[in-house]
Amino acid sequence: MMGGSLWISHGATEALFNGRSFIAVLPLALLLPTVRVSAQTMMIGGPLDCEETCVCASNIVSCSMKNLTYVPTPLPTYTAVLDLSFNSITRLRAEWTPHSLNRLHSLILSHNNLTFLSSEAFVSVTKLRYLDLSFNSLRQLDECIFEPLEHLEVLLLYSNCISQVNRAAFSGLDNLQRLYLSQNKISRFPLELVKNRTRLEALRLLDVSSNKIKALPLSDLKALPAWIKNSLYFHNNPLPCTCDLHDLVAHWHLKALSSTMDFKDSHTCLLPGQQKEKIAILDLDKHYLNCSEVKVMDKSAYLEQRLVLDCDSRERDMMKNWVLPGNISLSPAMETLYDGSLVIGPLKAEDSGVYTCYATSDSFNETLYVTVTVFNSTKSGGLENLKTAYTTLIACLVSLVMVLIYLYLTPCRCACCPGQGLEKSDSFHSSTVSLSQAHEETGQERGVGRGFAYRHVAFMQPKDQLEQNGRLNPIEEDEECQGDRERRRSDAESVSSVCSDTPMVV
Known about the structure:
The chain is an alpha/beta fold. Helices cover 22% and strands 18% of the residues. The protein contains 10 helices and 27 strands. The chain has a 9-stranded mixed beta sheet, with no helix packed on it. It has a 5-stranded mixed beta sheet with strand order 16-23-22-18-19, with no helix packed on it. It has a 3-stranded antiparallel beta sheet with strand order 17-21-20, with no helix packed on it. A hairpin with a 5-residue loop joins β20 and β21 (342-344). The termini are far apart.
């Protein structure tokens, strides 16, 4: 176009030299500045008109619904909010603003039919915190396209035609908190945005609903903390129905996470078969795949183990305080991790009970209960415990057999047994303990029929043994006791009780 204007100027000069009328050349000369302005407009943009085209109020510039095909220039350096929505801007080039806008924090470009974003489109607006690119015709997000926007907090990309997202497209967005990618054609779940080291540290909301995602990394999603899962939206995608998918959604629903509670009816899947019938994921345990019902499982462990109790709150960076079973405050000796988790152990049986975590913040409070059950065995239980039980049972049976043998199969040496006379009762010896030392020394006789005090179970001992338990046998025959027949008769009667069926302790 600029070449055309130069050709017109050359023709006008030649006409003057040829003596043509000046009046014939005048309209072409007047058209030349207009052509040059149009060329400049297409390269950079038209002038900003705060009376006819835009509304300029303080640090806000709104040019919405003006059918613009360019970004007006020059924009005031103090501009903080720029609204260019509902226009016809199809390409955002690197030179859309000739100078940096260091105070611009909100840029709205929705409903513009944008098809192209330059890799340097945002180098002049690095202080942006809010960028709205929704309802356009973007098809792909290239590598590091948003990297200059290190202060960006909210990025709206929903309702485009995005089918390809480079894994490094959102690198550098260290402060990004909310990312909206719904209603596109994305077929791969962007796990790198929420998982461990590769995730965006400040990201607290990710919406990939209403896309073309046919598979989810279920195990990785289950391992995410609750404050991420609470705002992770993936409903209305063509996911195949599986019991693992049902288990994931049911767990999130039981924990009252917003991502499943707010869009319960939109969490659907496709049944296998040609019809591809769409049903609710939470109904899979009722009629279709016979999936197991999901219940909240409590913590369980064995003796001497260590257990980590998670205070898995729905909000991030909350203050967390634990209360032990019985409403007992947490002692300083107990260990808590950086994320507020409580470490208990080595576990004892009395550690069972309900542990309470109070998570609080300026705008939200949450109470979580964790029921701990400590099994009365070590972790190496199971088969080993079963073997121990069998060993104990066998030992008890052997002991019982030995007792029966002792009772019924040992020779009876009592005076009441056949063939045994009272004269053989002397073969029994029992030890006695006297309460009075003086009583032992004087050998004072006891009353008839009272027997000996503090007797122990009688055992067979050689008759010639004169000492038991460190004391002399009080009923050993000596010269003092030979004439005392009454006492001998009383002793024989008292020890004859060992002939009964039950062992006697006399």
